[in-house]
Amino acid sequence: MHHAFLSAKVGKKDLPNRDITKHQVIQLLDYYRNNPIVHGLLAVLITTGARISEICTTKVSDLTREYNPKTNTYGYWLEVIGKGNKKRPLLIHDNVFQTIVKFRKRRRLDTILDPTDHSPLFTTPKGKAYNYKNLSMFITKKLNEVDVPFIQVNNKLKLQAAAGTLPEKDKDKILSISPHTLRHGFAIISAENDSDVFRIMQTLGHESLETTMIYLENKQSKEQNVGHSWGNNEVLKHI
Fold first, then answer.
1. Contacts of 132 (CB under 8 A, 6+ apart)
2. Which of 16, 80, 172, 189 suits a disulfide with 54, CB 3.0-4.6 Å?
3. In the chain, what are the domains?
4. Range 35-53 burial, b when 16+ CB lie within 10 A, else e
5. What predicted TM-score, i.e. pTM, was given to this entire model?
6. How far is the C-alpha of 139 from the C-alpha of 132, rounded, in Å?
7. Which three-class secondary structure state does DSSP give residue 73?
8. Where residue 211 falls among pLDDT bands split at 50, 70, 90?
């Protein structure tokens, strides 16, 4: 418990930079659009904020289609088990559901929703449930292999840091690209969509708002910068 308390108090300067933008997320998704395995996993992670460990333990029976009487529509929900063995529902958008279908078709698995099917929703090529560490390493590798400018630049920064040639002031420019980065992206994009921070906290399965705010700190510091108040300032207009 003492270790967990200390972890929550780590300063932002000591935390890895995991701030990823929606435009960068789109580049990652587009790059793997023709790879149903990677694309399906990325689509679920970025649109739900799920932990990689939660994805590994989901069963076919955890994915359901439910009717919403308020909107008179049907929607898909994925129940995951988070920290403390707590269950929470994650909304699966229709097009994200289709990426799950494509994933399972590529694995030659059944694509019928079945509440009695307790086999893994996402599987290895051998039809087994993913090991948390193996899946995390697999996705991390795939993310850092994407041939787009921001990943290429990030890899150069990491090489410079390893060689000791990266200035200390530039070390926070290095993005830590992993499945957890997508979880941060979910929080950031949700906030940009005007979602309430408390609701973001609930969906992520965080125990406190403090943890969620760490995810959003950099974004909010820019949004609340007093420089925005200079829009109609006479000095700015005079330049």
1. 52, 53, 56
2. 80
3. 16-221 (1.10.443.10)
4. ebbbbbbbbbbbbbbbbbb
5. 0.85
6. 11
7. strand
8. confident
